[in-house]
Amino acid sequence: MSAAGPGDFGPSRESFSVSVVSRSELSGCAPWLSTFTDQRKDHRYYEILNDTLESDFEHRYFVIVDTSGRVRAIQPFFLVDQDILEGLGTERSWISRIRRFYPRFLKLRALMVGCSAGEAHLAATDTLPVDIVAETLSSGIVAQAKSLNAQLIVLKEFPSRYRKALHCFVQRGFARAPSMPMTMLDIGYDSFDAYMTKALKSSTRRKLRKKLAATAGISDISMSVTDDATGFVDEIYPLYLQVFERSSMQFEKLTKDFFCQVGQRMSDKVRFFAWRRGNVLVAFSLCMVQGDSLYAEYVGFDYAVALDLHLYHYVVRDMISWGISQGYRWFRSSGLNYDPKLHMRHRLDPLDLYVRHTSGVANAIFSLALPWIVPARYDATLKLFPDYQELW
Q1: Measured between alpha carbons, how far is 87 from 291 in angstroms, rounded to an integer?
Q2: What is the pLDDT of residues 253-270, one digit of tens each?
Q3: Cα-based torsion angle of the residue sequence 273, 276, 282, 283 in order, rounded to the nearest 10 degrees
Q4: Which is it for the CA torsion 157, 162, 163, 165, positive or negative?
């Protein structure tokens, strides 16, 4: 299906077409192997998600082809049934009553451009810059969504630096609103103690030291770091599920196979941190590395002991200390659990949603409603960050 003609880019620009392919059709496609090589979540990560996430997600790929038939870029997307009120915390009894008779009320089949487990990026290449990729996709994506029986189109969690490139989607009827942001913490210090002394308020230091004191006398807690968790995945997974099931906002549910494959196939970018009390695993964190940054992606806790021992602060301290010792400058974290991050002086790292309904009439209503139904508007802790307005 043609997604962009010569008139879209001017007479000096090439024209491109877009088609949809499955994972198997990407086999042997050289441009795919170089997709997102500058990101920690490169093409391998998308393949792992395609292979290991359960059937709620249908992973597909937009192939951008030039007039000579050469594949120039590949942009991942997926299809999922999306409850547009999920995570908002506003579902009232009247919605539940309606769903007894209309189970799909306010649930739509969505085409989501991006990553099913993490933030998104445009699949630019050395010869195809982000603005051309965005323009090509935006000009044909509504027709593509309709052909796939999707009512909603979502550009899922694109970092704010893409706002200029993605403005073409806004011009074509998409509404932009903030997703729950990631956070970033400057760890360019000699040690964790130096960070506390120079970066934290005295009141925060006292509270943090008090929480860390809860584990100070427990000599049998030890940390290890590895790039492959296959040997203890049966211990990791129940702890991951404990955190997942406590979350008010749930999207992707990872599998044991995911944790095995991400270490085996991406050992250059993956680090598993594990904390044992004696021989018992009480916490773990899946981190990824990119440039000068250590990214905390997923955590798991044994809540039988985690709260009493303040293990969250314990594991964060250990990860930051390890990051400092390895020369990383930034400690970055996925969204949610913002209260401790606020006090530890994290900065917000905004992520954007771009959303459009395929029906023009429905989209006119949805565009007005979107900024009022995103959870970021109602999270009280987010509003306390000094850079909160950057989300908008």
Answers
A1: 32
A2: 899 999 999 999 999 999
A3: -10
A4: negative
Amino acid identity for residue 362 in this structure: A
**Mean pLDDT, range 323-337, rounded to an integer:** 93
Residues 28 and 11 in one domain: yes
120 phi and psi angles, rounded to 5 deg: -110, 165
Q: What is the pLDDT of residue 107?
A: 77
The total of structural domains in the chain comes to 2
pLDDT digits (tens, 9 = 90+) for 55-106: 788 999 999 999 888 899 999 999 998 776 665 454 455 555 555 555 554 6
Are 375 and 339 part of one and the same domain?
no
Length of the chain, in residues? 392
For every residue of 15-58, DSSP letters joined together read -EEEEEE-TGGGTT-HHHHTTTTTSSS-HHHHHHHHHHS-TT-E
**Structure tokens, 144:** 């593509």
Rounded to 5 degrees, what are φ and ψ at 271? Answer: -135, 125
